[in-house]
């Protein structure tokens, strides 16, 4: 799966994209847990998950061919 990082998360990880080898589908919640274990420096950061350019709930299934984006909250004025 291709993972896209934006804003604060992109700055912390110092990369905008990454490829993960995913053999089976997994829930968004399981993917978040995996990310926090892999990158503890983003644990506790707020972000939404977009799956193939659509925001999805934590129980949505991620397929190995999907594109996942981590999108932190955006403030504006």
TrEMBL record:
InterPro entries xrefs: Beta-grasp_dom_sf (IPR012675), MOCS2A (IPR044672), Mopterin_synth/thiamin_S_b (IPR016155), ThiS/MoaD-like (IPR003749)
Tree of life domain: Bacteria
What are the record keywords, sorted?
Nucleotide-binding
- Name the family the entry cites: Belongs to the MoaD family.
The name on file for this protein is: Molybdopterin synthase sulfur carrier subunit
